[in-house]
DUF6492 family protein
Amino acid sequence: MNSRFVPGAATEVQRLPQAPTAAVVTASYAPDFERCRLLCETMDRQLSGVARHYILVEHRDVALFRQLENARRIVVDERDLLPRWLHVLDDPLSLFRRRVWLSLKTQPLRGWHVQQLRRIAIAAHAAEDVLIFCDSDVAFLRPFDASAFWRDGKVRLFRRDGVLANDGHDEHRIWSRNAGAALGIDASKVSAQDYISTLIAWRRETVTAMCGRIEKLHGRDWVAVLGSARRFSECMIYGRYVDEVLEGAGHFHGSEEFCRVHWTGEALSDDDFRRFVAGMAPEQVAIGMQSFIGTDIGRIRRLIDLD
C-alpha cells in the first residue's frame, strides 16, 4: 500500500456516525508473540464493540502471527503499510541481535520507532471509524465495551494536563517539541500536555488528515519527516494535532487510564502481581506488564486463570 496521503488537513471534522465502527490496533514482534497471544485471548473474552483487530508486524514475523488470526483478527505486513525505500536488516553494530531500518530519507530506526510508524500508517489501510491502540503486553481482566471511547459524535482523546511542566519528563518534552515541528506549530508554543498511554483511541480520518498536513508542510513523505527526527512519539503528534491544529474538533478529553501498566522496575512475584491487580482503579479494565521487565508470561497466565 502506498504510504502517501492527499495533502492538506481537514478544515471541518464530521461527527461520528451514531454507531461508529471500531478496530483495535496492536503493533508487535516475534519476542512478544506469547504476550500477544494472551492479549488476543483476553480480548476475545472481555472486549466488546469492536469490528476488527489488526496486528501489525514486520514481514518476517507474519507467518508466526498468522496463528492468531480469526474471523475478526488480521495480521498486517508492514510492507503493506510503509514505503518500500525503508529497508530492514540485522544490525551488525549489535552483533546482529537487533534489527535496524535504514533509508536515505531517515535516520537509522529501531523497532520501537517503526512500530509507531505502523500505528499511524494503518489509518490508510483500515475502514473503521475509530482506531483503539493496545500494546501486545496488555491483558484484559474485566469486561469492557469500546463505546467508552466515543460520545456525542466525538472520540475520547487521552490527555494528562500539565505533566510536562514537571521535573523528570525530559524525553517527553523532546517528543512534544518534535511533534510541534512536524506539524508546523510555532516553536514558541510549548505544550505541557501528555498524550502517551496504552488503550487509547484516535479518529481514523483525523490521522489521515494529520499525515496530509505533515506532507504538505514539508514537501515529502510523512514517514521521512518523522524518521528524520528519530526522537518522536506518535501519541504526542496526534495529540498536539488535535488540540493545537484542529482546536479539539471531533474529540473530548479524558485523563483516566483504562489500563494499569507496570512500566519499570523488577519482575513481579506472585504476591506483587496480586497486589498490582488489586490496586486497579474502578475504571481500569486491563493490565500491562512491560515485556522488557521480564515478568514471566506463564505466571501471568496462571494468576489470571488462563492456564
Q: What stands out?
A: The radius of gyration is 19 Å. The longest helix spans residues 204-218.
